[in-house]
Amino acid sequence: MEQATPSRTALRVALRRAAHQLYDSPVVFPDPIAIPILGETHAEELRRTPLRPDRPFSVALRAFLVARSRYAEDNLGSGIAGPGVAGGVRQYVLLGAGLDTFAYRNPYPELRVFEVDHPATQRWKRELLQRGGISIPGRLTFVPVDFESQSLSAQLPAAGFDHSAPAFFAWLGVVPYLTLAAFRTTLGFIAEQPEGSGVTLDYGQPRDALPFVERLAHDSLALRVQLAGEPFQLFFTPAEIAAEFAGFGSIEDLGSAEINARYFRGRADQLAVRGAAGRLLCAWK
Ligand SMILES: C[S@@+](CC[C@H](N)C(=O)[O-])C[C@H]1O[C@@H](n2cnc3c(N)ncnc32)[C@H](O)[C@@H]1O
Predict the structure, then answer these.
(1) What DSSP element (H or E) covers 224?
(2) Strand boundaries in the chain, DSSP class E
(3) At the N or C end, where does the chain have fewer CB atoms within 10 A?
(4) pLDDT one-digit tens code per residue, 188-226
(5) Distance 123 CA to ligand 1 centre (A)
(6) CB burial readout 187-209, b (16+ within 10 A) else e
(7) CA-CA distance, 95 to 100, in Å (whole number)?
(8) Ligand 1 pocket mutation, candidates 142, 148, 171, 174, criterion most atoms within 8 A of CB
(9) How far is the CA of 97 from the CAs of 9, 144, 208, 262, 263, in angstroms?
C-alpha cells in the first residue's frame, strides 16, 4: 500500500460492517461501534447511499466480511475458554487492524489487545477514535508496523507482547495484499508462539482455480482495489495454504457452504456468501 496514505480498503470494509448493522436482520456480527467509528461524514454518507444493500455481489461481499469478523471473535472466545483448543489465550493481536472495533468493546477483563497496522492507517484510525469520542482502553496497545519493511518479531515484543503466553492473531483482509515473503515472515513469527496460540485469516483462491463467471467478479474486485492503491498480490488454493500451515496442530478451512451453514442458515433475507473465491481459515498450535 502507499506509504503516506491510510488504507482505503480498511474504510470500505468498515462501511460494509456498518451497513450490516443498519440493513440486515438478524445481525450476524453485532457491533455497536461500527457506525460511531466511521465519523459523522462517512456515517451520514452511508445512511444516504447505503452501498447498494440489495445487489447480489454487494450482499455476498458484506456477508463474507461480517462472517470473517464473527469467525475471528468466535475463535478468540474458544481460545480463551478452552479446553477444546488448549485454552488460555491472554493476548489478542489484530494484524492489519483497520477500523476493527473489538478493542473498544472487549468483554474479557484479562485479555490484552494489540492493534498492529500500517503507520498511516493507524494514525488515521486514532484521529477517528478521538473525533468520535471513543476512549482507548488501558488494555489496548497500538503497534505501527509495515509488514513489507519492518519486523513484527521486533516491534511486537517491544510494545509489551509476552512471547511466553498464548496469543490469538486475527489477520483479516490483509493476506491478499502482501508479498509471499512478508506473509511467510509474519506466519513464521506466529508459528513460534507457545502451544495454545492460534491465528485466523481469510484468503482468496487464485483466478485460475475459479469457475468462469466468478473470474469476472474476481477481476472487478481486483480492479477496484488496484485503483484504491492496494493491489491484490497473493492467492492460495486450499492445498497450498495447508502446506504453509504444516507446523500447526489443527487447521480448519471453510468454504462458502460451511460458512453459510454456520452463520446464515434459515434467514428470510438473501444474506449469504457465494462462490469459491473467499475462504476462512483458523489454525492452532
Ligand atoms: C482491507 S483492510 C482490513 C482491515 C481490518 N482487518 C478489517 O477486517 O476491517 C487491510 C488492512 O491491511 C493493512 N495493511 C495492508 N498492507 C499492509 C502492510 N504492508 N503493513 C501493515 N499493514 C498493512 C491496511 O493498513 C489495512 O488496515
Answers:
(1) helix 212-227
(2) 91-95, 112-117, 140-144, 167-171, 198-204, 250-254, 278-284
(3) C
(4) 999 999 999 999 999 999 999 999 989 998 998 899 889
(5) 13
(6) bebbbebeebbbbbbbbbbeeeb
(7) 10
(8) 174
(9) 12, 10, 29, 24, 23
Q: How confident is the model at residue 151 (pLDDT cuts 50, 70, 90)?
A: confident
Bond from prior residue into 26 cis (ω within 30 degrees of 0): yes
- Note whether 150 and 207 are within 8 A (CB): no
Pairing relation of β-strands 278-284 and 250-254? Answer: antiparallel
Locate 166 and state its grid cell. Answer: 498464548
Helix axes 56-81, 212-227, angle to 10 degrees: 80
| Beta partners for residue 202, in sequence order | 280
Could you read off the pLDDT of 223-252 as tens digits, one per residue? 988 988 888 899 999 999 999 999 899 999
Indicate whether 141 pLDDT > 50.
yes
Percentage of the chain lying above the pLDDT 90 cut: 78
Q: How far is the CA of 52 from the centre of ligand 1 (A)?
A: 24
Q: What angle do CA 182, 184, 187 make, to 5 degrees?
A: 110
3-state percent breakdown (helix, strand, coil) of the chain, nearest 5: 45, 15, 40
Ligand 1 binding pocket, CB closer than 6 Å: 1, 7, 9-10, 13-14, 96-100, 117-118, 121, 145-148, 172-174, 177
Grid cell in block for residue 139 = 488494555
- Looking at the predicted structure, is the pLDDT value of residue 1 above 70? no
Of 118, 120, 97, 109, the residue nearest 37 (C-alpha):
97
